[in-house]
């Protein structure tokens, strides 16, 4: 019990340092226009996202590096601490940077944030995750054992067609024996279709009327097809345990 509490206490300075860094970036933002004001809160709806996008676009005109650092820090923060709502930041990336820059940027940031989450869960979060998700851990443990001969393809499938939240996969992966290199490849490649879709849509953020517009039936079918293609090679691999 004491060991568990000690590990949990280690999270406090980590979270505090990351949060202070974001506060620093916002409250010491460079001067642009007296009427402009950055809000530290992450957008939780489309209206807030569109408003934030307009403010950051103004900043980008004279302080593009600052906007890049602020966006990257916020993105990694959300991914590291498993805060829902990555779709909003992907859309924002499309609005601010376009597909050419926003897509590779978000792929790298997604992999970085997920990696930090993986190692946090591995080093200090094991007991907490096991306490809150015992059934999920057991379920994925069984799945990993069943697909040990095709683990990369199985993880790619999960990432490309996220039936299970990516946040949960990030937290559970180090606890069920998924090697970090396999985890990293699956995150970086597997989330490319999702990132691209959101960033491409984000280029038209001003005209977007609903987040649901992103995930039409046609889009979901395309993502499912891509996921099945990723899983395809696994059928050629024989399970040595059978």
From TrEMBL:
Query: Which residue ranges traverse the bilayer?
Result: 9-29, 101-121, 176-194, 214-237
Keywords assigned by UniProt, alphabetized: Membrane, Signal, Transmembrane, Transmembrane helix
Recorded GO CC terms: membrane
Q: Which InterPro entries does the record cross-reference, listed alphabetically?
A: TM41A/B, VTT_dom
Compartments reported by the entry = Membrane
Residues covered by the VTT domain: 83-203
Taxonomically, the superkingdom here is Eukaryota
Give the UniProt family note.
Belongs to the TMEM41 family.
Bilayer topology reads:
Multi-pass membrane protein
Family matches, as Pfam families: VTT_dom (PF09335)
Protein name (record):
VTT domain-containing protein
Q: Which organism is it from?
A: Timema tahoe
